[in-house]
Design brief:
The protein is mostly helical. The protein is elongated. It is built from 18 helices and 4 strands. A hairpin with a 6-residue loop joins strand 3 and strand 4. The protein has one domain. It has a 4-stranded mixed beta sheet with strand order 1-2-4-3. The relative contact order is 0.13. The chain is about 70% helix and about 5% strand.
């Protein structure tokens, strides 16, 4: 067994044993206490102006906060590039030193069964590559998140989550590789089609089990106590044909300051959940707007649409990999000790070529996601009828998303509509429902007084 793999496994076990456990959940789920405030320039009235109202919301963030948000977003763009190049470097190291070939040889000495050989290679590969990219992971996910004030974990609990993530990835990678390589070996001429089908089947299965079996490994999930918040969420769910009998909340505050929620799962594992940051730091109207957005994804079948779109992208990726893999193998295969696409020693090359494909397809991938997010935004406005709450949430997420990116910047890098786009959409909706918005603003003013 390669020494680096032994070190990776040893570090993982040590992390899981030494990690400081996170704080326990409080006994009862909190009810929101934050009051929604509408900026003076965005109040409903006969002289309501969409552009002026949008600017009133954007001006809620200070120059310093905006500079910080811009720096975080722009740094993230560069990290996409460095992460891509780093990954290519790791692949070249595994292939160029024939370490990947030695890892494959080890599996053949342990067992003659091809599926088990594939699984054992996957264990080695995930452990080793996790160790090799760990310096970048620590910077990006720990130090940088603390630098910008988004992370709440100390190093011990963070390492514990990383260790758990490694173990999950090892299991999932072993299963995924057995499926994909079995398809590749059974369809030698059209292996790229078989590989794509196997990969998509695995993707659907993981998305089905993730809410119930994977997410609780990293956070504690509890049912939201009976009260106005739970009742309002369930009422909105039932009104939109969502078969939800309960609402869950989870302790994301032990890891991050960000607000989030989701309606996730497939084929009977659907779960409506929101994190404790959303409960504690936003108003009831904002919670309603956020949950309406998440319900929009479910009602509009975005999970299944994503599977279709991603399947097409994945099929294109396998076709690209087939074309480039054969060329690379003809030139360097003997030097790397890789005999063909069915040889697990070629996995670093396979994944490196996929990373090139998806890096080039980033604008397309982001456009697909952004389109779905825009549809869910419109659904949320119509379902919750809370334009100011939705605008407020857009401003809250501007902490880590550039509020006003340039058109080309948004097109290439953003997988969500920008904060300005979302606020403008909310104020556009408000302008078309001024009578309703005016009565709502009056109620908000009265409750604030």
């Amino acid at each position: 067994m390669p020494r680096l793999m032994i070190l990776a496994v040893t570090l993982t076990v040590a992390v899981l044993l030494l990690a400081v456990p996170g704080a326990d959940l409080i006994a009862a789920s909190p009810e929101p206490t934050v009051v929604l405030e509408v900026p003076a320039g965005a109040q409903a009235g006969p002289d309501f102006d969409v552009e002026a109202a949008t600017r009133a919301y954007i001006d809620l963030i200070s120059v310093e906060e905006r500079e910080k948000s811009d720096a975080y977003s722009e740094g993230g763009y560069w990290l996409q590039l460095w992460g891509f190049l780093y990954g290519l470097g790791v692949a070249w190291l595994l292939l160029g030193t024939r370490l990947s070939a030695r890892m494959r040889d080890l599996t053949t000495r342990i067992t003659r069964r091809l599926p088990l050989q594939t699984a054992l290679y996957a264990v080695q590969y995930v452990a080793l590559t996790t160790l090799l990219v760990f310096p970048l992971t620590v910077y990006q996910d720990f130090f940088r998140e603390h630098q910008y004030g988004f992370a709440t974990q100390t190093l011990g609990p963070w390492l514990g989550d990383q260790g758990m993530g490694l173990l999950v990835n090892v299991v999932l990678a072993a299963v995924a590789m057995m499926l994909v390589y079995a398809a590749i070996r059974r369809m030698p001429r059209r292996w790229w089609v078989g590989g794509a089908v196997a990969a998509m089947f695995f993707f659907v299965v993981v998305n089905t089990i993730a809410p119930v079996y994977i997410a609780p490994l990293f956070n504690d999930y509890q049912t939201l106590d009976a009260g106005p918040t739970r009742d309002g969420i369930l009422s909105m769910a039932h009104a939109n044909g969502i078969p939800a009998d309960d609402v869950y909340w989870f302790d994301a505050s032990r890891q991050t300051t960000r607000i989030s929620a989701n309606v996730s799962g497939l084929l009977g594992t659907m779960r409506v959940a929101l994190n404790d940051n959303l409960l504690k730091e936003t108003s009831p109207q904002e919670i309603e707007a956020v949950m309406a957005h998440e319900m929009g994804h479910y009602v509009l079948n975005h999970a299944w649409e994503s599977i279709i779109y991603f399947s097409l992208l994945l099929l294109g990726g396998f076709a690209f990999v087939k074309w480039t893999f054969d060329k690379a193998l003809a030139r360097w295969g003997q030097r790397w000790g890789v005999s063909g696409v069915a040889d697990t020693a070629g996995l670093p090359l396979l994944l490196a070529l996929f990373s090139v494909y998806f890096f080039l397809m980033t604008p397309v991938f982001n456009a697909i996601i952004r389109s779905g997010e825009t549809e869910a935004d419109l659904f949320a406005l119509n379902a919750s009828r809370q334009p100011d709450a939705f605008a407020r949430v857009a401003m809250r997420t501007s902490d880590y998303r550039k509020i006003e990116p340039g058109p080309l910047e948004e097109l290439i890098f953003n997988h969500h509509p920008s904060g300005r786009t979302r606020v403008h959409m909310s104020m556009q909706w408000k302008s078309q429902h001024l009578d309703e918005a005016a009565s709502g603003d009056a109620r908000e003013v009265a409750s604030n007084e």
